[in-house]
Known about the structure:
By secondary structure, this protein is α/β, with parallel strands linked by helices. Helices cover 32% and strands 28% of the residues.
Amino acid sequence: MVDGPDTMASIQVRGEYPAGSEGNEHGNAITAFVRKVVRESEAKALLLDFSELRYEYGDAIGSAFVHPSPQGQSEVEFLPCAVVASGRTKKSLISLLIDFGRIDSYVSLAFFEHPEEAATHLRAAAGSLSVPPEDSVP
């Protein structure tokens, strides 16, 4: 999975995210997986494909967008990110991340309907990025 310093990590998450605090375990698992992939691949951008995820609300998933900085445990970094989502999932993620969390003040974050559009956007925003094989969280 380690593909060098010019990598865009592409991760697909599928299934149903339980609402509210019942989804904390799912959110924590998604966050741990995303952080592992970002760390191991040394990714410079992140494509999260939630097109097959049913999500309504719950805060824990928001942690997947914040990554511990390699410079220190107490520092965090945000990678340019493209999210693939539609319908209720898209609306709910926008509410959590942008309307409530204002994450777009810290990072380039864009939503798309198709993974190809998201990857093209990230490549254009971050220069030339290679894309390793897609990982998946069931």
